[in-house]
Design a protein that fits this description.
The complex is a heterodimer. Among the domains of chain A are: 50-112, Arc Repressor Mutant, subunit A (Orthogonal Bundle); 124-213, Glutaredoxin (3-Layer(aba) Sandwich), CATH 3.40.30. Chain A is 32% helix and 9% strand. Chain A has eight helices and six strands. Chain A has a five-stranded mixed sheet with strand order 3-2-4-5-6, covered by helices on one side. In chain A, helix 3 packs across helix 4 (89-99), helix 4 (89-99) crosses helix 5 and helix 7 (139-149) packs parallel to helix 8. The longest helix of chain A is centred in the last third of the chain and has 12 residues, at 193-204. Chain A starts with 8 loop residues before the first helix and ends in a 32-residue tail after the last strand. Chain B is of the alpha/beta class. Among the domains of chain B are: 62-132, no CATH class; 397-533 and 671-689, Dimethylsulfoxide Reductase, domain 2 (3-Layer(aba) Sandwich), CATH 3.40.228.10. In chain B, 27% of the residues lie in helices and 16% in strands. Chain B is built from 22 helices and 27 strands. In chain B, helix 9 (361-373) packs parallel to helix 18 (630-640). The chains are: A alpha/beta, B alpha/beta. The structure holds iron/sulfur cluster and FE2/S2 (inorganic) cluster (2 copies).
């Protein structure tokens, strides 16, 4: 097996067993600093529209006035929704301004939570769960299916037509219906490669498939049929003393 | 995420005053922990030793008190507790895991062990994780020799690595924080001391942490320099070499340096400093802890302006011949002055002496004695209107000193700033006000030019009218001030230079007089003048001010002692001018003879700060060329002009200082003026300014460029870069090309 390796590789690997400091540098996956770009810079104006403004005021009113900065996460989310699914620097600045907090405190929140996308995303945001329970139930296959079906993109990328962005995410709390993907705000569960394709195709056509388990289950009940609660549960008063019936 | 005090109790400094009733009492000046140490003491056992500490202390403090050293990175006793480095683990009886002693309150009766195998193993584990991502670049790291990580790894580090991560070490890009702070973010261990300092003490809320977990970074997210006059302190705080000093980069190693403890003269706070020198050069200036003055901080001018000591120095006496300066010997120069004095025909008050910003007390006393002996009272100060007697007089100390004292600021529960921006006039004091603003419900108002003070304030106006309204009790703040227990009025030194100074002093004196039961009591004097120039309090103490008669005399002979701020037009064309100082700045240009003297790092002299605290500076390096100590120059000159002064050594001169005012030789303490004297002083102001009419000229801040206020900072390259970066907002040329143009300003 070693004969297949290029000659020079062997001694090097051996030499590497004593690490001096020749390790490559590892950059973080997401950029945690802001770079001005034509599509994302503080000069691009952002403002809540009338409807969101009303919701924002409502959210802010839930907190005591001196702690209104507690509303930062819901407001960022609102901003992200209004801003085509991603949180631009202008959204952050706007929220900071609205809540009267230093912009840096908002940047800290927005960079901490991975659900704030700080780069533009496609129309449909496909998040594939690859955490252990899903992985055991075949999420690797689902991820591959999604990527291939969307034209061979890699997780983290957006399709050329700007319709889909695929990312890998950690557990979404739907393990009992693993494997699953999230498209936009909806969970699609109990997936097979086939049902995954169907879902994506529907989205491509501009339709919205029915969220939830795709296997015919209602929720996360036993797929092999019920083992308990098989009979109609008894109603109020049944089996009671006559005077209580 | 960080637990930041500022995010909890106060809104941003820019948003003015959202009131929060804090649970902390104003008396809580302790920087112990987030909780106030009040009430009972508690007793616990550390390594078998019983210790008693105030309730609310952190466990780490109890351990310290018991003499056990606890390694630490994130804990700093003047900052909020973060508890994120885990280096301070100790074992506590009946606790299943080792606990972080900085984040754990000391509990009565608990048994703590700081030196068990478990503790060692835990700390070794923490250290291994910290080093996993830390570059091995100690030989080229400026922190080497004074690095907490380096030191502690000698004790807890492993000698071989288990790091086999194929993806490599974490790599973080460096941040551009301006001309003072150099970053090497790969070395950062995310202790967040810098972030806490910036947010709590300095009031720059732009620094923070982005990202999470292994990817967490320190920075500003958007590209932005750190615009604060306190930024240099994060270099001291950073336990590793992630933040180092840019001007000092690769200049010296700590073990090569000689440390001299001295006093700063860049402002009138008198911050305690440690001058680190190598050979004849000052390599850097560090703060020295003094809880009564500067705590542990110094401002950037104090820290970085010393490179001005290398440029533009006067190293040899110069005598003007035609329009050129010709080097001369001391003998020739002094004789030239004696001849010039005779030739000018100056008699009595026509002989003028002007004391500048950096004049030391000894020199001022010697010069005053000399000028007095020559029959003149014409002693000017280097400030607008400095040739007139000051409005507040110099007879009563409390009329021109910061009577509340610097630590006393934290006791105040209502502060009125009149004609001052403490952020630029006394940056370290300003951070105390900010501290108090963050932790207590103190009310602050400003009369004067609007300024970003790093805390919120009620803006009352910018002229005498606003003050008159306040005194008359108009406005919400006047009411709050009435109800305050420890009200404080901070009067800027620029007020006495202002055309309306008289009327405003009159208003203030009457107001304080009227409210004396709260403003002037045996324990509290709320009338405080904030001087901005190091030499000024001493000048007033020794009476370096002109008499009324002298102030109207046209001088024929002018002796400029470190005076570099004056208006050249104020010196008569035909007068004979002597400049005595250490820099070839403005004063030297006007002179007929220049006498080279020593700068503050080169002499052991007395300085009096704005509170009236006398402190002794010490000589760290020798003077360049043939420069001589200031008072010796005056003494030598007195000999040459035939009126010798009666002291031959500095001790005799200090006896003279004692004669003038005993406070000048009582070091490191402040002496409160008694209530009666203070009130008499206020009466004096009131009677001397009675009937003054205000013309309504707006108050302007006296310092427009914090970074260049005296000959040293004007000669400093670093301060010039700061001016370009922070005052003018230019790219200061240190960072890579093309950067900064896209700077995103939120
Ligand atoms: S830069 Fe230094 S002070 Fe700031 S978090 Fe990193 S190690 Fe701590
Ligand atoms: S592991 Fe996929 S939802 Fe929990
Ligand atoms: S010093 Fe206690 S956790 Fe850092």
């Amino acid at each position: 097996m070693f004969s297949k390796l290029p000659r020079s590789a062997l001694p090097r690997t051996v030499a590497r067993s004593r690490f001096i400091s020749s390790t490559p540098s590892r950059n973080s996956d997401a950029l945690f600093v802001h770079r001005d770009t034509p599509y994302n810079n503080p000069k691009i104006a952002f403002e809540f529209d009338a409807e969101n403004m009303k919701r924002a005021q409502d959210i802010i009113s839930h907190y005591p006035p001196q702690y209104k900065k507690a509303a930062v996460i819901p407001l960022l989310d609102l901003g992200q929704r209004q801003n085509k699914g991603w949180t631009s620097i202008s959204v952050m600045n706007y929220v900071a301004n609205l809540l009267g907090m230093p912009p840096m405190r908002v940047y800290e929140v927005a960079t901490f939570y991975t659900m704030f996308n700080r780069e533009p995303i496609g129309e449909h945001f496909v998040q594939v769960c690859t955490t252990t329970p899903c992985q055991l139930r075949g999420s690797t296959e689902i991820l591959n299916t999604v990527c291939e079906h969307l034209g061979g993109i890699k997780p983290g990328q957006t399709t050329k037509d700007g319709k889909f962005t695929v990312v890998e995410v950690e557990c979404q709390g739907a393990c009992s219906n693993a494997p699953m993907i999230v498209v936009g705000d909806d969970f699609y569960e109990d997936l097979t490669p086939k049902s995954t394709k169907t879902i994506l195709d529907a989205f491509k056509k501009g339709m919205k498939p029915k969220p939830g388990p795709q296997s015919g289950r209602q929720t996360s009940e036993n797929s092999a049929g019920l083992t308990t609660l098989t009979k109609k549960p008894y109603g109020p008063g049944e089996f009671c003393q006559p005077e209580f019936q | 995420m960080l637990r930041l005090v500022s995010t909890v109790s106060r809104p941003t400094s820019t948003g003015l005053l959202g009131k929060v009733v804090s649970t902390h009492t104003p008396q809580c000046s302790s920087a112990f922990s987030a909780t106030c140490s009040r009430g009972a003491d508690i007793t616990l056992t550390v390594d078998g030793k019983e210790v008693t500490v105030p309730q609310g202390s952190a466990l780490i403090q109890a351990c310290e008190a018991a003499g056990a050293t606890i390694p630490r990175f994130c804990y700093h006793d003047r900052l909020a507790i973060a508890g994120n480095c885990r280096m301070c683990l100790v074992e506590v009886e009946r606790s299943p895991k080792p606990v972080a002693s900085c984040a754990m309150p000391a509990m009565p009766g608990s048994k703590v062990f700081t030196n068990t195998p478990l503790v060692h193993e835990a700390r070794e584990g923490v250290m291994e994780f910290l080093l996993a991502n830390h570059p091995l670049d100690c030989p080229v790291c400026d922190q080497g020799g004074e690095c907490d990580l380096q030191d502690q790894s000698m004790r807890y580090g492993s000698d071989r690595t288990r790091f086999h991560e194929i993806t490599g070490k974490r790599a973080v890009e460096n941040k551009d924080m301006g001309p003072l702070v150099k970053t090497s973010m790969n070395r950062c261990i995310q202790c967040t001391r810098c972030v806490r300092f910036a947010n709590e003490v300095a009031g720059i809320e732009e620094l923070g942490t982005t990202g999470r977990g292994n990817d967490m970074q320190i920075g500003t997210y958007v590209e932005k320099t750190m615009d604060s006059e306190m930024s240099g302190n994060i270099v001291d705080l950073c336990p590793v070499g992630a933040l180092t000093s840019k001007p000092y980069a690769f200049h010296a190693r700590p073990w090569e340096l000689k440390n001299t403890e001295s006093v700063d003269v860049m402002d009138a706070v008198g911050s305690n400093i440690r001058i680190d020198s190598r050979g004849v050069q000052v390599m850097r200036i560090q703060p020295k802890t003094n809880d009564d003055v500067n705590e542990e901080w110094i401002n950037d001018k104090t820290r970085y302006a010393f490179d001005g000591l290398r440029f533009q120095r006067l190293t040899t006496p110069l005598v003007k011949q035609g329009d050129r300066f010709v080097p001369a010997t001391w003998e020739n120069a002094l004789t030239a002055i004696a001849e010039g004095l005779t030739a000018s025909g100056a008699k009595g008050d026509e002989i003028q002496a002007v004391a500048g910003h950096l004049a030391d007390t000894e020199a001022m006393v010697a010069l005053k004695d000399l000028v007095n002996r020559l029959g003149s009272d014409n002693l000017g100060l280097d400030q607008p209107g400095g040739n007139r007697p000051p409005i507040h007089g110099v007879d009563v100390r409390s009329n021109y000193l910061f009577n509340a004292t610097i630590p006393g600021v934290e006791k105040a529960d209502a502060i009125l700033l009149v004609g001052t921006n403490p952020r630029h006039e006394a940056a370290v004091l300003n951070s105390r006000i900010r501290k108090s603003w963050l932790h207590t419900p103190v009310e602050i108002a400003l009369i004067g030019e609007r300024a970003d003070t790093a805390y919120g304030y009620d803006y009352l106006g910018d002229s005498a009218k606003a003050l008159a309204d306040f005194v008359a009790g108009k406005g919400a703040f006047a009411d709050k001030f009435k109800n305050a227990k420890n009200p404080l009025i901070i009067v800027g030194s620029a007020l006495s230079e202002h055309p309306d100074g008289k009327s405003m002093y009159n208003d203030l004196a009457n107001f304080v007089e009227k409210n004396k039961e709260r403003l002037v009591t045996p324990t509290w004097n709320g009338f405080s003048v904030l001087q901005r120039v190091a030499s000024r309090p001493a000048a007033y103490d020794v009476g370096f001010v002109p008499s009324q008669r002298a102030s109207t005399t046209k001088p024929k002979f002018v002796y400029l002692l470190n005076a570099d701020e004056l208006d050249p037009a104020s010196i008569p064309q035909d007068a004979f001018v002597v400049y005595h100082g250490h820099h070839g700045d403005l004063g030297a240009q006007l002179a007929d003879v220049c006498l080279p003297a020593t700068a503050y790092t080169e002499k052991a002299t007395t300085w009096v700060n704005t509170e009236g605290r006398t402190q002794m500076g010490r000589a760290a390096v020798s003077a360049p060329g043939v420069a001589r100590e200031d008072w010796k120059i005056v003494r030598a000159l007195s000999e040459v002009i035939g009126t010798p002064l009666p002291y031959d050594d500095v001790l005799a001169l200090r006896d003279r200082l004692w004669e003038i005012s005993p406070t000048l030789v009582r070091y490191d303490t402040t002496e409160a003026t008694s209530v009666d004297v203070a009130l008499a002083g206020l009466k004096l102001i009131a009677s001397q300014t009675a009937g003054a009419k205000a013309v309504g000229t707006p108050l302007r801040r006296p310092i427009t460029n914090f970074y260049q206020t005296d000959p040293i900072s004007r000669a400093s390259v670093t301060m010039a870069q700061c001016t370009r970066a922070f005052v003018k907002g230019e790219n200061y040329g240190f960072s890579e090309v093309g950067k900064g143009s896209q700077a995103a300003f939120a």
